[in-house]
């Protein structure tokens, strides 16, 4: 991939992941303040905002690059949709974007730029939830990519994540960049540092299982957009 195109893709991934994390953390803070006595309502508000922003961001940035998720990018590498250099650059941009997003979200709500979360998450149920959430996300992404209407991906992913907030016990982090970033906000959406490594491992396991299912279910690879194939 030529350098200008790779730069554009990296910037798109950084900006998209930053907005995604800002939406996840920011809507969590807003929900906590607006509905202080109803955790279920807080989760509903958080999930709707996250699903909606995913649709918008994917639609806006998909012509350039719109994974916003290291495990999705790694599965793209496994499936041969991107090369190793591109995958590394995009993952790096996603991680930086997540950190930018969480700082911006904290500052927007007049909190310290960084506050380490004390929200412990874990246990076998929640870890299984992360495997399920990530596996399902990979299936949705790479299944929807086979649709003749590319905008299908945005609505499929946004809908899946909004639902997975509810049907998985972990509330569907399913994204290493978002998981690491949420460690830096001691708010509704935060996750304690000690809980992060097991979540990351389960996300990789889920992505690997999802990639295996994609290869089993789909005999031919999803088409690569013309610009990406240059």
From TrEMBL:
This protein's GO CC annotations: plasma membrane
Major localization class: membrane
Keywords annotated in UniProt: Membrane, Transmembrane, Transmembrane helix, Transport
Subcellular location as annotated: Membrane
A UniProt-annotated Pfam family: MIP
InterPro entries recorded: Aquaporin-like (IPR023271), Aquaporin_transptr (IPR034294), MIP (IPR000425)
Transmembrane portions of the chain: 12-31, 51-75, 87-107, 127-145, 152-168, 188-217
GO terms assigned for molecular function: water channel activity
Topology within the bilayer: Multi-pass membrane protein
Record family assignment: Belongs to the MIP/aquaporin (TC 1.A.8) family.
Protein's name in the database: Aquaporin family protein
Source organism (scientific name): Nocardioides agri
Phylogenetic placement of the source organism: Bacteria, Bacillati, Actinomycetota, Actinomycetes, Propionibacteriales
